Amino acid sequence: IKEQILQIGKLLDNLLTIARYDNRNMPMNMSSFDLCRLASEVTSAFSRLHTGINLQKPEHAVPITADAEMLRQLMYILLDNAVKYSGNDKKIVLGITQNKNETGFYVTDNGIGIEKQDLTHIFERFWRADKSRNSRGLGLGLSLARLIVELHGGQIKVKSEPGCGSTFDVILPAQRTVFEKSHGDNEA
């Protein structure tokens, strides 16, 4: 009973979060921060409970302007899925990516993978692949992940093969820092 109550509580929290995010007029708490530092914090917290999680990031800071708490939640969702659907020999990577036009991250695992016909449905609310129905998910995490990415003007993509694991790529538009905006806008 206690486990079911916790599950219902988590379901209600997720539904409330999705309802708030669905209202696209909701203000986001945008700020400039280092994506590598956020990823380090998330990986450190997650590693206390789960082994086999590695962080791959550049040596330099990766500045981004975004809602830090939303991106933290997004990383947790993707890492939680990777842990759930990987076996005992977990090999999970949270990696930071950056180029001139895009900033983002990916989560790769060596888990059960996703069937090709299921890939088109995984971001739908309450949808779960048949193989995953015995796990304790609610079918809301990936739909919430997609919503967070869309609110940031980005994309989320998945590559997966059954028995070989999955990679979720989050691609966010590169945004100039406040310093770059204030100095670059004066130039003609």
Describe the structure.
This protein has helices at residues 2-22, 35-47, 68-84, 141-151, 178-184, and strands at residues 30-34, 53-56, 63-67, 92-98, 102-108, 155-161, 165-173. The chain is globular and about 45 Å long. Helix 1 runs parallel beside helix 4. The strands form two sheets. The protein has a five-stranded mixed sheet, covered by helices on one side. It has a two-stranded antiparallel ribbon with strand order 1-3. It is of the alpha+beta class. The chain is 37% helix and 23% strand.
Please specify the SSE layout and strand pairing.
Elements (H helix, E strand, L loop, with lengths): L1 H21 L7 E5 H13 L5 E4 L6 E5 H17 L7 E7 L3 E7 L32 H11 L3 E7 L3 E9 L4 H7 L4
Parallel strand pairs: 2-4
Antiparallel strand pairs: 1-3, 4-5, 5-7, 6-7
How far do the termini sit from each other? 66 Å
User: From N to C, what is the helix and strand string?
Assistant: HEHEEHEEHEEH
Percent helix among the residues?
25-40%
Low-pLDDT stretches are 176-188
| Biggest sheet overview | 5 strands, mixed
Summed up, the helix count is 5
Mean pLDDT: 80
Q: What Rg, in angstroms, do the CA atoms define?
A: 17 Å
What overall form do the CA principal axes indicate? Answer: globular
Please state the oligomeric state of the protein chains shown.
single chain
Strand order of the largest sheet: 2-4-5-7-6
Q: Would you tell me the structural class of the helices and strands? A: alpha+beta
What is the beta-strand fraction?
A: 15-25%
The tally of beta strands, per DSSP, is 7
